[in-house]
TrEMBL record:
Chain ranges of the Beta-lactamase-related domain: 21-320
InterPro entries: AmpC-like, Beta-lactam-related, Beta-lactam/transpept-like
Pfam families: Beta-lactamase
Protein name: Beta-lactamase-related domain-containing protein
Length: 499
């Protein structure tokens, strides 16, 4: 790629976003390991203004996970940690039912553990969760999503507990581990761990959500460490990527970006804090990140020897989408294909995970987000999501099959068009109370509550869409013995009437 043309294209791309008077973005691009251009625009703070510069750090959310995984691998290299030992060796407070969970499972999102951050958001909304509360809930669990290593399910709690395990193995605080093993050696001067939004430095971009009058300040409602607690700049992320790819004769990077075999068959493209997969026929290695009102993406294209880093503090602008659009404009990615005109349609239920899917012609309707469905073979359509990976739906006669993370499951058609009468009595799941009020579900978790609009998918199944800006969707299924509720990260929560 011609460097001058790239610089001009990136500047023009950021200019086309019309960020004047709005929270904004910052991006940088490297080729051959060298930063060749940076661009930024928009406001630092939705209430106090200030301009974003190329030195402005942003919350990068789950893009932090690759740092956590790299730190664990370096500690293993130095003989301080064993990724294949039971996590209870370091954290004996965890229940015995998790004895077969290894640190490797936690770093590859195959532990089967419940996601306590997701559960908190589901039940308490935007009320603040101290990290000790998440740990306490994990220590008290008596169920899991699936046996360790058998499936993939994106999980924040595993990375939070991995941070704790590293602290206990070394006697150092997690921030000290990051500085000693990663930030210092990689020369990252603008990257740091900030567990609470209240502690963000004044020069950090503050996340924002659209409002009727413009934008309002957003606040992440939890204390976060290894699962998503870093702030950084796009330039520092490119510096990090170059360093990570070259340490230990590239062995660390190779391990992080290798697919994870699953005991239930198949493999997940999610390695150890990195995802390596084909997207529009082009290989990429990446990990997106999201917080309330902000997002990030760090993505490498090995064949083009190019890496793009994007950060946004504007809740209406998704950094992973910007990175894809920029790669397309630069000719790294081909244009997105047109949505499929045919394929399986209707309402379907994944009994193993408790998830509902609404398939429309050319569209997967997740009720909080719509994804285009593209043709993939004669009888298969597929959708790509930065957070979920690829979901492919195959029609085989009268049956519809879901292909996900190398595994295949038959989907059940959801019967009936009219929704059933909702029960008046409340249901409970552990310390969470669920009750129906008209066509809404009220979920109360003790420290807060969330109302969900219920969208019928059939006679007994609903998509529950939060009325608060919390990043989740639940599927609610009414059964004879109570309710079965699933989010993307907590499967088949059985709720009974014993409140």
């Amino acid at each position: 790629m011609d460097k001058d043309l790239v610089r001009s294209a990136v500047d023009s791309f950021v200019g086309s976003l019309n960020l004047a008077g709005k929270p904004g973005v910052s991006m940088a691009l490297a080729q051959g390991g060298k930063v060749i251009t940076k661009a930024c625009g928009g406001m630092l703070h939705p209430e106090h203004g200030g301009a974003i510069t190329d030195q402005t750090p942003f919350r990068i959310g789950s893009t932090s996970k690759q740092f956590t995984a790299a730190a664990a691998l370096l500690l293993e290299r130095d003989g301080l940690l064993d990724l294949d030992a039971s996590i209870r060796d370091q954290i004996p407070e965890l229940p015995k039912l998790l004895s077969k969970v290894r640190l490797r499972h936690m770093l590859s999102c195959t532990s089967g553990m419940h996601d306590e951050l997701d559960m908190w958001l589901f039940a308490n909304g935007l009320s603040f969760m101290p990290q000790r509360e998440g740990f306490a809930q994990a220590f008290a669990r008596d169920t899991f999503n699936f046996p360790a290593g058998s499936h993939f399910c994106y999980n924040n709690t595993g990375f939070a507990l991995a941070s704790l395990a590293m602290e206990r193995a070394t006697g150092l605080g997690f921030d000290d581990i990051l500085r000693e093993y990663l930030f210092g050696p990689a020369g990252l001067r603008a990257t740091s761990l900030v567990a609470r939004d209240d502690d963000l430095p004044a020069h950090c971009a503050r996340t924002a959500l659209p409002s009727p009058t413009g934008f309002t300040l957003a606040r992440f409602p939890a204390e976060i460490t290894g699962e998503g607690g870093l702030i950084s700049t796009p330039s520092d992320l490119l510096r990090w990527n170059r360093w990570l790819q070259n340490i230990d004769q590239r062995q660390i990077y190779a391990r992080m970006s290798s697919a994870t075999p699953l005991k239930g068959g198949g493999s997940s493209a999610y390695g150890l804090g990195l995802i390596k997969a084909s997207f529009r026929g082009v290989t990429r290695v990446h990990h997106p990140g999201g917080v309330i009102g902000g997002s990030a993406q760090l993505v490498s294209y090995p064949d083009a020897d190019c890496t793009i880093a994007v950060a946004s503090n504007n809740g209406a602008i998704a950094a992973p989408d910007l990175a894809d659009r920029l790669a397309e404009q630069l000719g790294i990615l081909p244009p997105a294909p047109l949505p499929a005109e045919s394929g399986p349609t209707g309402q379907f239920y994944d009994d193993a995970m408790g998830r509902g899917f609404s398939l429309n012609p050319g569209e997967l309707d997740l009720h909080v987000q719509r994804l285009p469905l593209y043709k993939q073979g004669d009888a298969t359509v597929a959708a790509d999501s930065a957070g979920m990976g690829r979901l492919a739906f195959e029609c085989d006669g009268q049956e519809v099959w879901l292909h996900e993370h190398g595994q295949t499951r038959r989907l059940d058609p959801i019967a009936g068009d009219a929704a059933m009468e909702l029960p008046a009595s409340p249901f409970c799941y552990r310390n969470t109370r669920l009750s129906f009020e008209g066509r809404q579900l009220l979920v109360e978790g003790g420290s807060g509550s969330v109302r969900y609009d219920l969208r019928p998918m059939g006679q007994d199944t609903y998509a529950a869409v939060p009325t608060l800006p919390v990043p989740l969707l639940a599927t609610v299924k009414a059964e004879s013995e109570g309710l079965r509720v699933s989010t993307l990260r907590n499967w088949n929560m059985r709720c009974d009437g014993a409140c």
